[in-house]
Amino acid sequence: MKKQMSFFSMALSSLLAVAVIAGCGTGNQSGAGQGQATPSTGGAKTLTMATSADFKPYEYHDLTSGKDEIVGFDVDIAKYIGKELGYEVQINDMNFDGLVPALQTNRADFVMAGMTPTPDRQKNVDFSVIYHDARNTIVSKKDSNLTKPEQLAGKKVAVQLGSTQETTAKELAKTVQGLQITSLNKLGEIVEEVKTGRVDAAIIEDHVAKGFVESNEGLQLTAIETAEAQGTAIAFPKGSVHVEEFNKVIKKMQENGEMDKLIQKWFGQ
After folding, report:
1. What's the rounded Cα separation, in Å, for the pair 240 and 171?
2. What is the largest CA-CA distance in the chain?
3. In sequence order, what are the residues at sequence separation of 6 or more whose Cβ sits closer than 8 angstroms to the Cβ of residue 116?
4. CA end-to-end span of the chain, whole Å?
5. In this structure, are strands 69-71 and 59-62 parallel, antiparallel, or unpaired?
6. Shortest CA distance to 47 belongs to which of 116, 139, 111, 115?
7. Distance between CA 58 and CA 166 in Å, rounded?
8. Are 160 and 183 in contact, with CB atoms under 8 Å apart?
9. Average pLDDT for runs of 10 along the chain of length 269
């Protein structure tokens, strides 16, 4: 009887050892940002899109359906591209200044956040072709008489942390004496700072600024004249295999009228 029990114990131990070894070898080796899409539970390939969903109408939280859903111009483009290429798109919301680091640390496959492909960003990530043009504006109170960059001398100006608007403000500060910059994470906070007078003005991308001004009667916006419009593009980790295939779909959307439909839907132009 003891021999039979001993044999059973040895057999059971062997089976458990095999199970542990097998389990250790089944980990998922792929991840976001590695150039390979992660399979979803339904079998379709999944790409992770990082964004900062406080940039209406590009991306923002919509609660009208009773649930929190991230929607917008960029989201519609991402879903269209995903459908064309056979990907499911998973959206991760984070602060704007964390988007490029998310690509660099492989926590996202691409970024869409109304992002401009500046030279500094191009050193760290790759970009798609430009898919939309935009301009910066000065947002201020209607009675402030702050409509031109030179009128910001000695004033406090709010911008979004890590944005091209922050870069624009820093460039202006080199020639506009006494311009003080306040960098914040969320655009809603920036607009509140202007409304309450804690800052004198803000620099915000024109389509986004238009939405805030329309919902706040006491505010105004004025475009900052530049030599050319600032374009927005999709950002990817350096060397991503997705850049070329995304570019093909973007160009297709621009040629077949789909991009114009989305511009009309979200910007009314």
Report:
1. 31
2. 98
3. 164, 230, 231, 232, 233
4. 87
5. antiparallel
6. 111
7. 18
8. yes
9. 42 41 35 54 81 94 95 97 97 96 97 93 96 92 94 97 91 95 94 97 92 93 75 96 98 96 85
